[in-house]
Amino acid sequence: MRIEVKPELIRWARERAGIDPDVLTRRFPQFRSWERGAAQPTFRQLEDFAKATLVPIGYLFLPEPPEEPLPIPDFRTAPGAGRVRPSPNLLDTIYTMQRRQAWLREERVECESEPLQFVGSARLTDDPDAVGREMRRIIGFEEGWAAKVRTWTQAVGELRRAIEQLGVMTVINGVVGNNTHRTLDTEEFLGFALCDKYAPLLFVNGADYESRKMFTLAHELAHIWLGSVGEGLSGFESIFPGGTQVEDFCDRAAAEFLVPAKELNARWGSVKDEPQPFETLAQKFKVSPIVVGRRAMDLRLVDRETFFDFYRAYVKRERTRKKSTGGGDFYNNQNTRVGALFATQVVRAAKEGRIGFKEAYDLTGLHGGAFQEYANRLGIVLP
Questions:
Q1: Less crowded by CB within 10 Å, the N or C end of the chain?
Q2: DSSP secondary structure of 264-332
Q3: What does the DSSP 8-state code read for residue 19?
Q4: Collapsed DSSP state (helix, strand, coil) of residue 69
Q5: Are 156 and 210 contacting, i.e. CB atoms less than 8 angstroms apart?
Q6: Nearest Cα to 137, choosing from 247, 231, 256?
Q7: 85: three-class secondary structure by DSSP
Q8: Cβ atoms within 10 A of the Cβ of 37, count?
Q9: C-beta of residue 318 within 8 angstroms of C-beta of residue 239
Q10: pTM for this one?
């Protein structure tokens, strides 16, 4: 039995998924005929096509392609990032995080938790450097903390855990849920913040370089500090965001948070005559050398020509580097993909019977034995 589907919906599904027509034709030999309206798929073929293009099958029965605007404000400043249709991977990630945030907010309100005072405590008229220092004070990082951590990966973990201890859901993931076939594109976005006094959430694209994750974590934390005016999606070139008042503010606050002017000035004299001073200091602060170089320029420790000569050469080299590919222990990955803070709340709610296990599975993306094992690793024994 053939199913009547409008050609424009077939075309919309293909374009929405960003899949080359030749790829779909190899899987569905009559695909081009479907897109022209010269033939119709069977229901089974339509189901497979919907799965291949990551489209809810019901959308393909609509009279016309639906509009799918971003559900949060768009602060992206990378060329072209904000002018194209959001990918299914980005949309599904945002929707999942919004569901988790809504659940945790309700949980905390019902438990009469106090609202988090730092959420929305900053204003765009404030000095972003002062906000960066306040963020660091609230988190409790002492001077030189990053220099005591051996690797960038460990530094990212330390910062993520410190942010979670404030009560902020902090998710770092390079794929949609646990689906390693659905990689998040760093060209599309680097992170986003969902602001709420009871359940703030920040998300970092884990497919990025470790050194850039540090900056994105701090950048999204600054969005949380701004509150509702800072809620939105971030995507920027490696030199720093720039281009909007909100992104410029978060850029400067994050830079001061990660590379305080006082510390950089104190260290500069001992490295300024080295062949690669920015790389040396990047090791100390656990950030990208570009962040150190830009800070040095902003603090007038080097001139613009010196920085931009370095920047162009570094970006050229960076393009040949391999980004994070994930991997590692599945259950350890859940601490970043789900977040120990959120997962602990869900597991306890399931154990106490306040939610069913099916809802707990849906919220965490973990099912059956995987959910049980992760609960055990969180120190919660389920019946």
A1: C
A2: HHHHHHHHTTSS-HHHHHHHHHTS-HHHHHHHHHHTTSS-HHHHHHHHHHHHHHHTTSPPP---S-HHH
A3: -
A4: coil
A5: yes
A6: 256
A7: coil
A8: 14
A9: no
A10: 0.89
